[in-house]
Amino acid sequence: MLLTEEEFKSTFPSEGFIDVTESAENFNEKEFDEYVRNNLIAELGKMHIGYVYDAKDGSYRHVTFITDVKNMHYIVVLNLKNKKIFGHFVLDLNKEYGLS
Fold first, then answer.
1. How does strand 72-79 pair with strand 17-19?
2. pLDDT tens digit string along 36-69?
3. Per DSSP, what are the bridge partners of residue 62?
4. What's the pTM value of the predicted model, to 2 decimals?
5. CB 58 within 8 A of CB 25
6. Which of 84, 94, 97, 92 is nearest to 44 (CA)?
7. Separation of alpha carbons 35 and 9, rounded Å
8. Sequence-separated (6 or more) residues with CB below 8 Å from residue 95
């Protein structure tokens, strides 16, 4: 499910995030891979995981994909409490910050 900006920002805890890129375990690899393949991969091209951040309160994980499109990131949000995919958000830094 494509998240609105409001829904996406609601997953940001007041305590912040910690970088777990090197230590995060995929709790449902098949579902996660299928979700990524079926949501925007055709539009954004080849992607790879760049960063993984967990909310310090243990509520959400943000998996940030680097895409072929400059300054465009695809973020899959996971609900860590119920171990389900919450949705995804396309972060367009070009639009957000006037980059090119």
1. unpaired
2. 878 766 666 778 899 999 999 999 999 999 888 8
3. 53, 77
4. 0.86
5. no
6. 92
7. 21
8. none
